[in-house]
Design brief:
Layout lengths: L1 E4 L5 H11 L23 E4 L5 E14 L3 E13 L8 H15 L4 E5 L12 E2 L4 E6 L18 E6 L6 H12 L8 H6 L12 E6 L5 E10 L2 E9 L2 H12 L6 E7 L5 H4 L7 E3 L5 E5 L2 H7 L6 E9 L4 E10 L2 E6 L6 E4 H8 L5 H7 L3 E2 L4 H9 L12
């Protein structure tokens, strides 16, 4: 078996092999675009059998990830990972992932992210679930707010209704302001929007956008939605301000022709359920994992993010997939971290995948200690880790790739 880099000439073979691995056929959306339109073929791999037949694929996107403290760093989004069913359990996937991580290292990237098709696959490659999302379904007849507000916009604001096709760059501009302030959010490069690569509203699929404007007329939020057979499905609500966010939710819940409203990607910490007069009105689908994080360079990653408490921890980090193990002293003073090799006894012993879960602040270290994933040494090690890793804003990721 050979694993080789791809070029633009391999695009058709790459796509055909990927879809065959998932038992599907390539589709050309009627509106144009599609996720394949965003592939970076100079960052893709093709596994080829000895007889020359392609048997596996893997690729990476070039993203930016917002870390706690509104710090923006490059992150490789691993995607399009598949192996033909005729060649599974022969080491093809492991070989492609090993090559992929080596390539990311060579590019100087210290973080990788992905969305996992199956939860049990990627932990062994060092990825840990780092953000969750919710799906809310609210019957409209139970959608009254505990504190009524006249109109649908925030104070001194307004809402404009646009079709996706007539929005131009507006949603991209609003999203870019949002993702720069939201930990866990990924960038949406310009070519994603221009090629319609992704899910609505990035794709060209017909959608309405309720665009919120502040008192001066500046667009500061949007909700992308479609009404079908009485169900109003909101693809995403994007806003940096809670008041604007709530105004857009009120707009959706106030649509006269809807019998129910479904919010597909709702931040788990958002207070909408508490804002409703009927606290049981929102039916919550169990939190699914969304963004998975993999640290490729532990010291660089830990010193890159922002911190909100002073302290120090010794972390013993095991990376079995890459055959590496390191012990690091993490010291935080006034929001800045230093991470250096250490020979002191560890406070926490953990797998690199668990460190990926902790990295954005989506789960507390003590939770993983209680779950048996992380080993705490000493009676106060877990509580000290909780205090150090706490964040000022829960991570959330809307972007699908």
């Amino acid at each position: 078996m050979e694993i080789r880099d791809t070029t633009d000439e391999d695009f058709g073979v790459f796509v055909d092999t990927l879809y065959a691995a998932f038992g599907r056929f390539p589709e050309t959306p009627a509106e144009g675009g599609g996720i394949c339109a965003a592939y970076e073929m100079d960052r893709a791999l093709l596994a080829v059998a000895p007889d020359g037949r392609p048997i596996g694929t893997a690729a990476a996107y070039s993203f930016e990830l917002t870390l706690p403290g509104a710090i923006i760093v490059p992150a490789a989004g691993v995607t399009a990972v598949g192996v033909l069913p005729t060649h599974r359990r022969r080491g093809v996937l492991s070989a492609m992932m090993r090559r992929m991580l080596a390539r990311l290292d060579a590019r100087g990237e210290f973080l990788s992210v992905l969305l996992a098709s199956e939860a049990v696959i990627y932990r062994r490659f060092g990825y840990g679930p780092a953000t969750t999302t919710q799906r809310l379904t609210i019957p409209r007849h139970r959608a009254a707010f505990a504190v009524p507000r006249a109109g649908g916009a925030a104070a001194d604001g307004s809402i404009e209704l646009l079709r996706r096709a007539e929005c131009g760059d507006l949603p991209a501009e609003i999203y870019d302001r949002y993702r720069r302030a939201q930990p866990g959010a990924l960038s949406r490069p310009h070519h994603w929007w221009s090629r319609g690569a992704g899910q609505p509203p990035v794709s060209f699929a017909p959608r309405y956008l309720a665009v919120h404007r502040d008192a001066s007329g500046v667009a500061d939020g949007y909700a992308s939605y479609l009404l079908d057979s009485g169900t109003l499905t909101v693809d995403e609500v994007v806003a940096t301000d809670d008041t604007v966010f709530t105004a857009l939710a009120r707009f959706a819940l106030g649509h006269d022709l809807a019998t129910e409203v479904v919010f597909k990607h709702w931040p788990p910490d958002h207070p909408l359920r508490w804002q409703l007069a009927d606290v049981r009105a929102a039916q919550v689908q169990p939190d699914p994992d969304w963004l998975w994080v993999r640290l490729l360079d532990v010291p660089r990653a830990l010193t890159a993010r922002g911190w909100f408490a002073d302290g120090e921890l010794v972390l013993d980090v095991d990376d079995p997939f890459r055959g590496e193990r390191g012990r690091y002293l993490l010291t935080v003073r006034e929001g800045k971290a230093e991470c250096v090799p250490a020979d002191r006894a560890p406070d926490l012993t953990l797998d690199v995948s668990d460190l990926g879960s902790l990295y954005l602040g989506g789960v507390a270290p003590s939770t993983l200690v209680r779950a048996g994933h992380v080993r705490a040494h000493g009676p106060d090690a877990a509580s000290r880790a909780d205090a150090l890793f706490r964040v000022d804003r829960a991570p959330h990721c809307l972007h699908w790739f």
